[in-house]
Amino acid sequence: MSFNDISTNQQGETAISRWTRAIIMAAKVGKGLSKDNKSEKLILASKYWIEAVDPLHRYGNNLRPYYLTWFNSHVISQPFFYWLDYGNGKQVTLEECSRTDLQSQCVKYLSPKEREEYEVVVDESRKMLVYKKSGYPIDTPKGTKWIFVVSTNGVLYVGEKQKGFFQHSSFVAGGAVFAAGRIVASNGFLQAIWAYSGHYRPTEENLKVFMSFLHQHNLDLTLVKTVPIDDDIPPPPPPPPPTPAYNMEKQQLNSDIINKKFSNIII
């Protein structure tokens, strides 16, 4: 699917309005890591920004090699998404990710209404986690992978991970969060939680935010494990603070995505 296939949607959204929306999203994502009085927020790792600003939200890991191919081609007259869907890169397919996989794996970014289905609260009378809307207890069957985030509004969201389709970025549409990780529960009773997300790269400090969230709701965590209990290895921790030269390179790359390349889009 390309932008030609969705030149207008059912609500009459045009290509121009989609690009405007993408720029607004980029501005939101690009606000950077910020602090409040309680905890440090997590934003998307920089390599996933391109997923957030893509109107189709194609999986960031798949978009990345195409972005690098475009970046190294120095086709300044063609902004990345134009190059990818209309221009010189339209027929490009890469060994790291085929064009078929690129186009088929689009991450679901939930709307505020949709994310209500994933909101989880603590039933303090039964000491268990339940979905707020349905009242059903959380249950994560063996052999599946379930993920959570705590939004910057202090709301817990839980859902089943589907690589390339439903990720941590899905819950708050690529926005900032206080915590992100994996979760294991049986009939509402929490068994394990651990920091885990390639999109947000959480630390143990972020996990403590979630633990505090649960403590505040009188959930007993005495027997809850806080280490991985399956073979899904968490992504490595964030790298050390970058050098000034790296900062300049990263700033230029982000600027290319958000500012310069959007300013001369050909519709």
Give me the strand/helix succession. Answer: HHHHHHEEEEHEEHH
How is the main sheet built?
6 strands, antiparallel
What is the typical, i.e. mean, pLDDT? 80
Shape: elongated
Low-confidence stretches: 1-16, 29-37, 241-252, 256-267
The beta-strand count equals 6
| Number of distinct helices | 9
Could you tell me the strand content as a percent range? 5-15%
Q: Please tell me how large the radius of gyration is.
A: 20 Å
Strand order of the largest sheet: 2-1-4-3-5-6
Coarse structural class: alpha+beta
Q: Note the gap between the termini.
A: 17 Å
Instruction: Assign a percent range to the helix content.
Output: 25-40%
What is this structure's SSE topology?
Layout: H1 15-29, H2 49-53, H3 60-73, H4 80-85, H5 99-104, H6 112-115, E1 119-123, E2 128-131, E3 146-151, E4 156-160, H7 168-171, E5 177-186, E6 189-195, H8 204-216, H9 244-263
Helix pairs in contact: 1-9
Can you tell me about this structure?
This protein has a six-stranded antiparallel sheet. Strand 5 (177-186) and strand 6 form a beta hairpin. The protein has 267 residues and is of the alpha+beta class. It has helices at residues 15-29, 49-53, 60-73, 80-85, 99-104, 112-115, 168-171, 204-216, 244-263; strands at residues 119-123, 128-131, 146-151, 156-160, 177-186, 189-195. The protein is built from nine helices and six strands; from the N terminus they run H-H-H-H-H-H-E-E-E-E-H-E-E-H-H.
Brief account:
The chain has 267 residues and is of the alpha+beta class.
Name some characteristics of this structure:
267 residues, alpha+beta, six-stranded antiparallel sheet
